[in-house]
Design brief:
Layout lengths: L1 H19 L4 E11 L1 H4 L1 E3 L9 E5 L2 E13 L2 E17 L6 E16 L11 E18 L4 E2 L5 E2 L2 E20 L6 E11 L15 E9 L1
Antiparallel strand pairs: 1-4, 1-12, 2-3, 3-5, 4-5, 5-6, 6-7, 7-10, 8-9, 10-11, 11-12
């Protein structure tokens, strides 16, 4: 709830900026997410499923994003971002079977892009810095093994626990838009995402979903 309220206030404050903007630039990208901090690996206290301390960690994942960048002057733009990604991992504890983890995230972000020096927000050209807030809608899944179809075609779902979470996140990074004509351009972007709310391990909340994101895409 708090994530939704904070993000709504952000979008309301930036809405007039988008209305004054020039023609927008639309972008798509493929992303590699690399977990960091507690998302990469952390020890959880005992719970109903594993009654001893247990270690959870996630591997790099893949995702995609769609963006709309609204230039408001030659060096500044407001960007709306829709992004999704997924990671797998494992839960291990001494004396217990290893469990499988899966995490899915869908985020809606409002960001500011700054194109310094010779960069151009109007043409979406050159290096840019970005930062903003996101509303993150996440699903955490815990299973004993991968789901499968048996020889009779019956589906077996081994999921033993799921948890959905809505949280507020922040994103900072830099990118570069290549190409100097008036057509499409390709972009490279490196960003860091940090979860700001809802990650108190002592109260049973999942760890902060902090990760580095490397993206390659196109802007038109």
């Amino acid at each position: 709830m708090r994530a939704g309220i904070a993000f709504t206030l952000l979008m309301a404050s930036l809405g007039p900026v988008a209305l004054r903007a020039q023609d927008p630039h639309f972008g798509v990208a493929l992303n590699l997410s690399v977990p960091t901090g507690d998302f990469y690996g952390t020890t959880y206290p005992p719970d109903a499923i594993t009654p001893v301390p247990h270690h959870r960690g996630y591997d790099p994942g893949i995702g995609a994003q769609f963006t709309v960048s609204f230039p408001v002057n030659p060096h500044l733009a407001f960007r709306l971002e829709l992004a999704g990604q997924s990671e797998s991992g494992s839960d291990t504890a001494t004396g217990y079977e290893q469990l499988h983890l899966r995490h899915e995230l869908f985020g809606i972000a409002g960001e500011i892009q700054v194109f310094p020096g010779l960069g151009s927000a109007t043409r979406h050209r050159g290096m840019y810095l970005l930062g903003g807030l996101s509303a993150d809608f996440e699903r955490f899944e815990l299973s004993q093994q991968d789901s499968y179809y048996d020889s009779y075609g019956d589906y077996h779902n081994s999921v033993i626990d799921t948890q959905s979470k809505s949280r507020l996140g922040a994103l900072v990074g830099l990118g570069h838009s290549f190409g100097y004509g008036f057509g499409g351009r390709f972009t490279l972007e490196l960003a860091y995402h940090k979860t700001l709310t809802g990650h108190d391990l002592a109260s049973g909340e999942p760890a902060a979903t902090d990760f580095l994101r490397l993206g390659f895409g196109w802007v038109f």
